[in-house]
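#random but structural
TW: two for the price of one
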Amino acid sequence: MDDLIQRARKGDSEAFVALFEQSRPALWRAALAVLGNECDAADALQEAAVKAWQAIPRFEGRSSVGTWFMRIALRVSFDIRGKRGREAPYAPETFQVDAPSNRGDRERGGVDAVPLDDFRVIVGGKHRADQDEAMDVRRAIARLSPDDRLVLTLFYLDDFPTQQIAAILNASEGAVRARLTRARARFRDAYCGNDNQKAEAAR
């Protein structure tokens, strides 16, 4: 990793691409959580890659390169969201583990692409989710705010510790833990609300 960073700082584009690709899945999930749709998330990643390439000669290693990439990607994502002045409709069926590799993958989505079991941990689920649960989980995610989706994504899907999330979000670790607690509660409420709606419909 250090060798790649040093080479990238000296203008080696192949080294930079190798570094960025290592972080791409996490960056994709974060951008999607903030922006709510794959088209905007793809635009954000492309812009973030350009900005990171331009800035990599000044990278001083005060944080990990993955944290540095994430800050850039989130700054771009929030800028895009701010320019629109509204949150784009969130399509939960497109919430994927990795960035889609082509247009067909982007349009396909589907239950198998969703990291359901990671999010089911929040509500105490132990077994693998079936298709009905997949829909419930996705609907619950769709009801969350972008900020809630982001902190849950960073913690549960990207496995970032609260200390690293604090560095990414420029917040205290205590503030991150408080945000996680609130986001988990909102996810559980949304998830259990899906169960209540199904129970009412079955009567």
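TW: number two ↓
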Amino acid sequence: MSASLERQVVEVEGRRLTLTHLDRVLFPATGHTKAQVLRYYATVAPAMLPHTAGRPASFVRAPEGPGGQSWFAKNPPSGVPSWVRVVPVEHHEGVTGQVVVDRAADLVAMANLGAYEVHVPQWTAAAGPEAHDRLVLDLDPGEGADLVVCCRIAQRLRQLLDADGLTAHPVVSGGKGLHLYAPLRPAPGRAVADYAHRLAGRMRAEHPGLVVVSMTRSQRRGKVLIDWSQNASAKTTAAPYTVRLRDRPAVAAPVTWDEVAACADAGELTFTPEEVLDRVAAHGDLLAPLAGTRSRGRLP
């Protein structure tokens, strides 16, 4: 995929794709083009796909990059190849078809259509929303707080989860915050959300000057919101390894607990797509245990 070409026909996993607007600069601050983003997804796919496969995906679409029009989309966009799997998903507003990103070709095809940011639920289409197989906590700093504060809170949450028999894995969100995942033996979404809510409440009780569980922005200044609600069956979370549509192309990237403990500046845990590819090449998928079955804990 050459950045010097406006249009190119490629083959990904035996699937023919016509890639367009390859010269389009999506991130003016860094000069990253659409071709570079497509190349990133094609390369990172082996690490990313275990965390998206089988899950009905939603996308933030922004064909011209974060500086243009963007919207959150559940329905497949026009032009999706017929070989991309689409599954029916029941929502409050009715049943919609949603793409499942199972293969590198799916990932590249969606990004080619401007669906650059991938979001998935904590359950698979095959098992359904009553069988969540992972828990997620989204640590989102308010004004006056930052990723460093999130890291300190995450370390305590790790201890609480461990005491309950659950293993936490950190992923920087690609924005200002941090996601914590824990693999689960399948459990109903309501039970997972209730547990996550109680856990967030315990943290707020321990650190009332630092933690909130309310979305109200006026309460969040200088504090970190522990968003437990992304465990609801109707909610999704930015998928590990997805590019985030910010001014600069940061990535939702797995990190180690040593990196979390050592973090003294948010920039230390902010990664470009190229840096993430280097990390994967050096260390593999740091989040691999999340997609496995051995480390799944039983919900307390």
